[in-house]
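Practice problem 4.
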């Protein structure tokens, strides 16, 4: 899954709405709002407060996206990594995670190699390298925590 970190909270809200099945027409009732009220909160129109983190989280839980935690973690220079649930894991899943991590590391190395062909790394290349690196670090962390979750001796302790 490609994880583009958005630059503003408004971009996050817009991306969540775009990803929500049925868009704002279906997201509004999910939050118990009319479409007009939802639009006012989502786009901060007419002096309305923005959607809360909890409301965005509720919508994202249905879309499978992580725009809000990715955005917040990026503000602090980190990456968001969801923790796997033991009942969803097996050794085949761990292997798939391992391959995914290797692919993402390879992408980082490929971007660096291409950037170095002219001997300098420009600002656009820096952004591409760091974005790919964030994805690799997140995949590796997710892979390691999945191994721990699946094979931990005393789950919950």
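Answer key:
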């Amino acid at each position: 899954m490609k994880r583009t970190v958005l630059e503003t909270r408004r971009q996050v809200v817009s991306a969540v709405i775009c990803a929500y099945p049925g868009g704002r027409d279906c997201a509004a009732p999910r939050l118990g709002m009319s479409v007009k009220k939802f639009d006012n909160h989502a786009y901060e129109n007419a002096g309305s407060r923005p959607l809360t983190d909890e409301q965005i989280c509720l919508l994202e839980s249905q879309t499978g996206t992580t725009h809000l935690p990715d955005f917040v973690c990026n503000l602090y220079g980190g990456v968001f990594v969801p923790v796997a649930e033991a009942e969803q894991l097996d050794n085949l899943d761990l292997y798939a995670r391992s391959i995914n991590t290797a692919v993402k590391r390879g992408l980082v190395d490929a971007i660096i190699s291409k950037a170095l062909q002219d001997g300098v790394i420009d600002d656009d290349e820096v952004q591409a390298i760091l974005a790919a690196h964030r994805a690799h670090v997140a995949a590796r962390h997710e892979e390691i925590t999945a191994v721990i979750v699946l094979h931990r001796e005393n789950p919950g302790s």
